[in-house]
Structure formats: structure tokens, C-alpha cells
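Entry 14. Ran structure prediction on the chain below.
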Amino acid sequence: MISPKQSLNAHEIQTWMVSKLAELLNVDTSEIDIHQPLEDYGLDSSRAMLIVTQAEKIFGVEISPTMLWHYPTIAALSQRLAEDVEETNLVGNVINPNLAKIADTSLDLQAEVVLDPRIYPPSTSFVFNPHPTAVFLTGGTGFLGAFIIRELLTQTQADIYCLTRGKTIEEGKNKLQKNLAQYYIWNENLSHRIIPVLGDLSQPLLGMDEVEFTKLGNTIDGIYHSGAMLNYVFPYAAMKPTNVLGTQEILRLACTGKLKPVHLVSSVAIFESDYYAGKVVKEDDEFDHWEGIFLGYSQTKWVAEKLVKLGYSRGIPITIHRPPLIAGDSQTGVCNTDDFINLAIKGCLQMGCFPDVNYMLDISPVDYVSKSIVYLSLQQKSLGHAFHLQHPEPVPFMDMVKWLQSFGFPIEIIPYEEWQNRLTTELVTPENPLYTLRPFLLERWSKDKLTVPDLYLNAHRPQISCAATQQALAESSIRCAPLDSKLFITYSSYLIQNGFLEV
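Output, C-alpha cells:
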């Protein structure tokens, strides 16, 4: 067993990290490749930071959240940690040179909106196809992507070509199957329509050679771009290759062979600039203001959507879908337990307190979001428009907290400043999910030195209108489940039954 702050070499640290990653993923250590980027294992920022914070305690060094960007594999990271441990033992303290702010506040996002001038539609005219026979999907190994696959299987007869990292087609297929199965939506009878495409969103031509890329472009009738790197602590530059340059390659694919529509899954985060605070933002409003968007992830989503709008100005057919934070399935309660909502709830329950904050809970169930994206993408009148998949009837955040109290959870509601102090002074164990999120929760931004949670208070947020989206969905049977006790019971029951929450 490794004891804290003992002298360790890279191999010993590597062995510890392999064991810890295998434990997190519930796989055998033989399945862990030390040269494979941690991101490839589906680690989001919270689970990756769990390994980091445990490593800090074990090895006695301070590790910046951005170190995982500089050293993305176990082999590289363990070598770097070994060097830091040695330096710590020599001088008794180490100031990590990788400590960095989460975002580059001097970044000019408008200057980042540059689309390859070679990306233009072919000369042939575009004909909308409401009955596609083949579509391409990114993000199929993610939470929302899994449910988009389900809806494409249900609402269309199309084969679904899914961009997947992997060394073999079989490995890619297994990843997709495992992802759908964990959300209880794998359907063996329809599995022949799910076709893995080996590639990488962060690479030119999506990691394919030119022949493969061209063949795919000639095969598919539409593109659903849901893939993105979501990390709460990485800067813009770390996510640009996947979220921004990957979107450029999606637009390139749309113009390769026959012209195809791009259905972009964006985010309401594009309106995080303080310019929009207190304003009503409608679906087709312009979003030219980026100053005051501080999270690297949100910055990449702003630039990516601008690229898609630029592609539209060149003649590429598009639809844009902007969900808020996405909650679990309203029917089964199944959800992504690694998302921010669930981690924050679990962390606050472990602390025994929630902050008394003026938030609106506008989360949307994943089944509503996925059904809406696919349905709207199949309507010709949707082309050129954006849609807000915000919950049409949000409720105060404190309604959920009070409901949790009534469900039997012992919760103290305390002033926000006191909650922040407890987060800083009392939260000392990585076993609490909020421990890993402290860089996200406590970093201060803007001239007013606001934290990210401050920026989400109602006074600093826009009002996202979804009236036009609701009208576009009116002729369908798609309705957003109300945020009431029935839905909270569905979610809580799932989280308790799978052991994520304890009463």
C-alpha cells in the first residue's frame, strides 16, 4: 500500500493510477492502456478530478486541474507526478508551474471565428430529405448522444453511423452498446442499424483518411453533431481542438459529396455574457456578445455555434438546438450520475446543507431533449432556425431542496456566503464530489469578482424564451415533464436504488 508523501518513482505512481482508474470504471486493470488519453475512457472533469485529488493526498503534491490537459495519459502524468514528488521531498514544498486560471480572460472569441475558406457547398442544389436512410452522429458514447440514437432508431428508418474512438470496429461497437445499455435503452433487435465509424473529433477529417471521409460524405443524408468535450476546469485552448475545430470538420463533411444538413447540439451557455443579464433571449436572436463568458467550455460552444452560423451564410443547411443542463429520463429516472446537477446534490447532502440561492431550476429531461432534437430535425421548416430546449415551466431551485427535505434527507439551508466558507474550510475529503469541483465553484471572475455559481444567480442570467420552440413542437406529441414531486420521486428513486444517494 502506498503511504502519503513517500518517495515514489513513475512506475509506482503509474501502477497506482491504473488501479484507481480500473476501480472507477469497474474494469480489470488489464483493460487500461497507459498510453491512451484519459478522455478516451469517458472520464468527465469530475471523475478525472477525483483521481487528481486522491493523488494529491497520497503523493503530497499540489496538482492543477489543467495538468490533465498538459499530461493526458497515465504514462505522461505519472512521470510528471514523480518529478513533483521528488521536488517536494527535496525542498519540502512545491509550487506547481501548471497552476493556471480556468479561463483566459484576455481571449478574443470573435477572432476565433474562422472557418476554412475551402468549406463551401457543392454546386448541386440541396433537396431536403425527411426520410433519411443514413445519418452521422457524434457524441454517441455520451449521455444525450445515447438518447439521440434511441430517437433516431424510433423516429426514422436510417442507419446511424456513429463516430467512435477505438482501435477496431468491434471495440467501437462495444463502446456504443455499453453506453446505451447503462441507460437501459439498448435494443438488440435494432442494433444492426448502429454502425461505428472509427475516428476522433479533434483531428483533421475527424481522424479518417480522405477516402474514408469522402465515402462517408457520399453515404449519409444528415449530420447530428452532439459530441463535445465537457470539462468545468479546462481552458478554452484545451477544448478548442474537439469543440471548435471538430465542428469545422463537421461542416467540411456536410459539404463533401452531396450537401447535407447539420443539426448542431449547442447550449444556452452561449448567452452567459453579462450583456444578456435580465434580458429575454429568443431562439433566433443574434448572440454577438461574448465578453463575460468565462468558462472555457462555454467559450468553445459560442465559437462553435458562430462557425455553424457562418457555414449557414455560405449555404450549408443547419438547425441549432440549445439545451440547458440535462436531467434524467422522466419515465425511468435513469441519468448520468457524473453530471454537475447530481454531483452538486450529492455533495450538498453529504455536507448536510444547501445554499439559500435565488436560482431557477430549468433543467430538461433527456427524453424531452432528444425527442425534440430528432423531431425538429426532420421538419423542413426547421432549417435555418435555432431552438431552445429549456424547460417551459421552470421552478425555484429551493423547491427541489425543500422537496428533498420532505423526502427524509436531513438538510440545513444556510446563507450562500456561509456555504462557500464551509466549502473552503470544512470540505477536506475527496470522497465528497464538491471537493473535486472546488476550482469550478470558488474561482472568482469578472470585475465584480464573482464565482461561477454567482454568475448563475437570476440577477446575472438572461431569461431564455422557448416560445417559438414550443410552437414548433405543438403538432407533435412531445411534452416536457413538469418539475413536480412525481418527477423528483422518479429521479430520487433511481439515484437511491443504484446506490448513488443514501437516505
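The radius of gyration is 23 Å. Will compare against last week's run tomorrow.
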